[in-house]
Design a protein that fits this description.
CATH topology of the largest domain in chain B: Peroxisomal Thiolase, Chain A, domain 1
Order of helices and strands of chain B: HEHEHHEHEHHHHEEEHEHEHHEE
Low-confidence stretches of chain A: none
Distance between the termini of chain B: 23 Å
Number of strands of chain B: 11
CATH class of the largest domain in chain B: Alpha Beta
Largest interface: A-B, 22 and 31 residues
Number of helices of chain A: 3
Number of helices of chain B: 13
Shape of chain A: globular
Strand content of chain B: 15-25%
CATH superfamily of the largest domain in chain B: Thiolase/Chalcone synthase
Order of helices and strands of chain A: HHEEEEEEEEEEEH
Oligomer: heterodimer
Number of strands of chain A: 11
Strand order of the largest sheet of chain A: 8-7-6-10-11-9
Helix content of chain B: 25-40%
Low-confidence stretches of chain B: 1-8
Radius of gyration of chain A: 21 Å
Helix content of chain A: 10-25%
Radius of gyration of chain B: 19 Å
Strand order of the largest sheet of chain B: 3-2-4-7-1-8-11-10-9
Chain lengths: 183, 357
């Protein structure tokens, strides 16, 4: 391909920059979750039909397809088990602020049926990270907590409230206890 | 074979539900859908497991949530796995797909739903993106401005006046007084409406629909199953949709050839209709659509108030079908026509003809 063809092709490119702005409030159930979270409490909804505990709540149980409400609120402790993880080695793409390898782990809190995804796990070297590891939330001081990053999209983490989940040193949990609650 | 063919095409709406249209719903789109789908199932008197096929209509651009349509499926109960599909279109097109699927003849019951929350977005920003990427989208032409051009073309062609537009609005809001799901209703004087300032000349604010959040669901059943489930099913005599050129500049925007064709193909022969529900998003479009279908004076158009009273995009078209079907099921109408639209300035049009037994 000649340089001239390249130039002609480049001239065919038309830039169309699009910006769409969305503004939304947290759903009532997520709003309640955040209010409690900022106070250091982990509150989800227990399905009145099957008993599964969703944390945070979606406002319904997708398995039974029944709505859940404030009446179904349950508090769970801040201890749990790592059910899955990845160690991300960041490359310098646009918007990436991390420079060192970091953890992206799923933590199933004791008494919950849905894991919290995208959590940092500390207290042990990355090469010792494993499923079944017992962890406990390391909360930010109250005056440093914020709801920023928590959205209805479900892709936010709790990093603005909980610094990380720290290994407790307890014996690992049996796979039997969490194998049905990985995602 | 003949009996089979007949059985396969005998399909009716036997249950439905819709949420109230509101300007800014606090729950998520799935949360709006959960009770609506459940209520439609209850209304049809079926179990969730009776549903052989599910089709949903929604648009991720409305809430800006990538793959939002996937979580919407949770309202249908997707575990254990179900047979389902999604259209990035109004729920009326989801119903069309489910209706086609029922005609295969191997299942008896289908669910279709449509949902949309326009409130998180700026519709003028979002809908400019559905225009062609070379000429119109870069200009950022929004639906209201396009509708203004259409309204002016209608006036210039001598097909309507601003008074006609205001009359459509007054009728819509008066009719909406009896619709608990509508957002805008009340008694309005045509002269008072005409005294309002222009919003996009020659349109005034009231010629433009409200921004709405809502969800709607229908249950369809085939042949004897429909008769078993519903005392007076709303039989779908025909359903058809047609598409015109995307670029509004290539069409006569004062008429709607695709609506005319869809109405004929759906089986509308010009006979009497007890109820007509039109997706006339902007008041001048009611005049265009009435002409396109061939509706005379005195036809009961948009007894629900239509999109000018509540415009939950992606649900609004299926709501038209539900409003028409509900009047057949409750016995107040025997023959009804419902219309849904998509794309800029009535680009795509769907017509559904419904009848009682």
């Amino acid at each position: 391909m000649s340089d001239q063809t390249q130039t002609e092709k480049e001239n065919l490119v038309m830039e169309h920059l699009v910006s769409l702005t969305y503004r939304e409030r947290l759903t009532p159930n997520l709003n309640r979750f955040v209010d409690e979270l900022l106070e250091g409490r982990l509150v989800g909804h227990k399905c009145p039909s099957c008993g599964r505990v969703y944390l945070p709540s979606k406002g319904y149980c997708p398995m039974c397809v029944v709505a859940t409400s404030a009446e179904d609120e349950v508090e769970v402790p801040d201890t749990g088990t790592v059910t899955g993880f990845t160690i991300v080695t960041p490359v310098a793409y646009y918007g990436q602020q991390e420079t060192e390898p970091f953890v992206f782990a799923s933590v199933l809190l004791d008494g919950a049926d849905t894991p919290l995804n995208g959590q940092d796990v500390t207290g042990l070297p990355h090469d010792q990270l494993r499923t079944g590891l017992r962890v406990k939330a390391k909360w930010k001081p109250k005056d440093q907590r914020s709801a920023e990053g928590i959205s209805n999209r479900g892709w936010g983490s709790m990093g603005t409230v909980v610094d990380s989940f720290e290994a407790t040193g307890e014996p690992d949990a049996s796979e039997e206890l969490f194998k049905d609650h990985i995602f | 074979m003949a009996a089979n063919d007949r059985g396969a095409t005998d399909i009716a709406i036997v249950g439905f539900a819709q949420s109230q249209s509101v300007r800014d719903a606090a729950p998520s789109e799935v949360q709006l859908l959960v009770p609506v789908v459940a209520d439609a199932i209850t209304a049809a008197g079926i179990e969730r497991s009776d549903i052989g096929f599910t089709c949903a209509g929604s648009c991720d651009y409305l809430t800006g949530g990538p793959f939002a349509f996937v979580s919407n499926l949770e309202a249908a109960g997707a575990w254990p796995p179900i047979s389902e599909s999604h259209v990035e279109a109004d729920g009326a097109w989801a119903m069309y797909e489910a209706w086609m699927r029922l005609q295969e003849g191997d299942i008896d019951v289908a669910l279709a739903f449509g949902s949309g929350k326009s409130s998180p977005s700026n519709p003028a920003e979002v809908w400019a993106q559905q225009l062609d990427p070379y000429y119109l989208a870069p200009l950022g032409v929004d639906p209201v401005s396009l509708a203004g051009i259409q309204a002016q073309a209608l006036i210039d062609a001598g097909k309507a006046t601003e008074r006609d537009f205001a009359t459509v609005v007054a009728d819509s809001r008066r009719n909406a007084k009896s619709n608990p799901n509508a957002q805008l209703s009340g008694d309005y004087d045509v002269d008072a409406l005409l005294a309002e300032p222009y919003y996009r000349r020659p349109l005034r604010k009231h010629d433009v629909p409200p921004i709405s959040d809502a969800a709607v669901a229908v249950i369809m059943a085939r042949g004897d199953k429909a008769r078993e489930l519903c005392e007076r099913p709303a039989w779908i005599r025909g359903m058809d949709h047609r598409i015109e050129a995307h670029q509004p500049g290539l069409r006569d925007i004062t008429s709607s050839a695709s609506t005319t064709l869809a109405a004929r193909k759906a089986g509308y022969d010009g006979g009497p209709l007890d109820v007509v529900e039109l997706s006339s998003t902007f008041s001048p479009q009611e005049i265009i659509l009435k002409n396109a279908i061939g509706l005379g004076a005195g036809v009961n158009v948009n007894p629900s108030g239509g999109p000018l009273a509540a415009n939950p995009i992606m649900a609004v078209g299926l709501i038209r079908i539900v409003e028409a079907a509900s009047r057949i099921i409750d016995g107040t109408a025997n023959r009804a026509l419902a219309h849904a639209t998509s794309g800029p300035l009535l680009q795509q049009n769907l017509v559904c003809l419904l009848e009682g037994e």
